[in-house]
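Expect chain and fold; thus:
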Amino acid sequence: MTDFVGHDDNMRAFTAAFSSGRLHHGWILAGPRGLGKAGFARNAAKILVDPGGQYEDQIERGIHPDVITVERPLKDPPKEGEDIDPAAEKKRSIGVDQIRALQNRLVTRPGLSDKRAVIIDAADDMERNAANALLKSLEEPPAGTYFFLISHSSARLLPTIRSRCQSLRFEPLSDGDMEAVLRQAFPDMDTESLHMLARAGAGSPGQAMEYAGLEMDALEKDMLAIVQSGDPSNAIRAAMAAKLTTKAAQSKYEAFLRRAPQLIAQQAAQMNAQSVESALQAWEDANILAARAIGVSLEKQSVVLQMGTLLASLQTHKDR
């Protein structure tokens, strides 16, 4: 198991509660997607069920009997003997049948430890009936059982669930922690690419790793080139639109729509007071454009060109 990086305050709060002997049975790990909440939950589970470090590999691979993870099931489960495709489409929600199956497991004793950890990833994905069923376990938790509810939008959780759990809020990682996480994940990556990937992740290791899988480094360079030059001939914008509007580029197109407003915000943070107001308007326009592009399926080429124009406008703002 690799070392867990970042969120030191949250880990200190959890370990202090554990050491006190008064550890709460329910924890909500709240914050935007991709910050490492699932990794934190696995490390907290390790502290609980495997303090001696005997079963690290089993916990990491998800096969330790006392660490139970509940997540959205696959839409089309693999046939017997087939490997699970990590990119396979999942159902939209965690169903009540999954929570009831979990509760059936909880009536038995832990297998290798005197404690058990249950990770719900993500609790926001539970159907209403599933959430109500889980509430019963939170109200009367089995002895030695601890729940970790990963939440990307904790306002969507039932108020009664929130009231029965401790909450830990997760914030974006620092640049140094981002690079440490990415160095673990990509030990052979060159330093320049690592810096660019860390910057593109905007404090979210999950987002950075998604971008690495999509080979977004060339697109990041193009966006930065537009910001730096203003792209007066529109050549970079046009080339970018050609790359992003094919059917095969859908995932990269969606990643671009998330990344471009972030890049504008990063640039705005470096501007002086006279320029920042216009840059923040560009950021707001970029967010609106990105939301509409997905929500009402705007024409892709037009969207990419408009987003490129918002990036190019930052050159004007910087010159003021």
